[in-house]
Amino acid sequence: MDTASTASVERSAIRKVAVRLVPFVALMFFINYLDRTAISFAGPNGMNDDLALTAAQFGFASGVFFIGYIVLEVPSNIALHKVGARRWLARIMVSWGVVALLFTWVQNAEQLYVLRFLLGVAEAGFFPGAILFLSLWVPTKHRGKILALFYLAQPLTTVIGAPLAGALIEQHGVFFGLEGWRFMFLCVALPAVIVGVITWFYLPDRPADAKWLTKEEQTWLTTALDKEAKAKSAGGDGQGHSMKAAFTNGRVWVLAVIYFGFIYGLYALAFFLPTIISGFEEQFGTTFDVFQRGLITAIPYLPAAVVLYLWSRDATRRGVQTWHIAVPAVVGGLSIPLALFMNSPAATVAVITVTACAIFAALPNFWTVPSRFLTGAAAAAGIALINTLGNIAGFAASYVTGFLNDLTGSYVVPMFVVGGLMVLSGVLMVALSRRGAVDPVVDGTVDDDAPTSTRAGGH
Q1: Where is the Major facilitator superfamily (MFS) profile domain (predicted)?
Q2: Whole domain around residue 272: which residue ranges?
């Protein structure tokens, strides 16, 4: 096959992956993120009062999700690697859908804690599994674009989900007399079960199984991916494909700390932004109904989706550079505490929008880094390990923010903690790059002329 024909097959194959797989996996992610953050909409809109929750109890209930999630994250991703994404992701979705449905009938704080913990157990492995699945379908130079399209689901979950949750919460008593927040939990849980069943039949495990690819496209994808896998395995100490490489590679652990800062900021916003917005009424003398609160909550995330797409597009064109990750981390870290000192709801939301844009600009580009030096079982374990340790921030952000708010009577101190951790992520990303621990990228591909010590296996 000549060069022109190969380029044509490449474009066609990547386009089909982007059209056939990414929207469906993004839909799964949309449902996933909505189910885990539904508590943030329910809390200030009836649940906290009905269950008599303090801010610390609400924070603990929000964060205890991550304990079960963290414990089972790596085993879940290894299981996905062994049995295939189609079966495992389908199992995860149905499991969490069933647990999420039970929130409809929760009666007290203790039951809420148990259900949030079980939801984390059920969801464990979904996000790193989805990242791994998409990474196994496209070569490095196309990976940033594909992950950016996938990641659009996260801010769009709030853009669409916040007003939707608000509208559902307003439907008091329409279904067997359920309070609005209980009805909301019911409605956001059912799609997980339905889409989980569809996943079993829809997702192919690898290019060779995709009937919508031509033979030439299947061959090109398989060859390109196999070539990259062999290059990673042969680099450095030759262990880029083993599980040991994931647990002993210093880069994996530093990336986990960097991810911790991003996730701390993400969930501090996700769980407490609706509560902060509800506080506008007392602080500024304004009044919003539940649907209006949902719309205000959604405002920062629509620009965030646009910035995510444009920033990732630039990263794909230039090749992902350190500043594509570090600059948003610093901007987000400086902006989030600043939001608390604005003198109007509009100014506060505007600064929070900058924070949301920064977090979502960094995340898809961040996830291109681990797969540059890990493959096979190491990629499965490494991506899960980074996500596992990073998601400790999901618990910490929820509980610590609520605890510090109860202790100090405001969100000033907890938001400074958020900002400091995000700035630290940016500093660590720069330090990792300057030590040669992240592979150089040229035009979206790993620079094969980089010194061996900076490629797979180097510490």
Answers
A1: 21-437
A2: 15-454
Any domain includes 176: yes
**Comparing C-alpha atoms, which of 364, 287, 295, 370 is closest to residue 328?**
364
CB-based contact 265:328 (threshold 8 Å): no
Q: Render pLDDT for 334-349 as a digit per residue (tens, 0 to 9).
A: 998 887 787 777 888 8
- DSSP track, 133-178: HHHTTS-HHHHHHHHHHHHTHHHHHHHHHHHHHHHHHT-TTTTTT-
Task: Read off the CATH number of the domain in which 36 is found.
Answer: 1.20.1250.20
Please give the Cα distance from 61 to 133 (Å, whole number). 30
Q: Give a yes or no: residue 8 inside a domain.
A: no
Q: Give the sign of the dihedral formed by CA 178, CA 183, CA 72, CA 87.
A: positive
Is 122 within a domain?
yes
Give the Cα separation of 133 and 127 in Å (integer): 10
Structural element, H or E, at residue 391: none
Q: Which residues contact 361 (CB under 8 A, 6 or more apart)?
A: 304, 307, 308, 311, 312, 324, 328
Could you tell me if 320 and 363 are in contact, meaning their C-beta atoms sit under 8 angstroms apart? no
Q: Is the pLDDT of residue 260 over 90?
A: yes
Whether 3 maps to a domain, the answer reads no
pTM of the model: 0.73
Number of domains in the chain: 1
Q: What is the pLDDT of residue 232?
A: 64
The span from the CA of 295 to the CA of 161, in Å, is 9
Structural tokens at position 124: 């464990």
**Cα–Cα distance between 249 and 232 in angstroms, integer?**
14
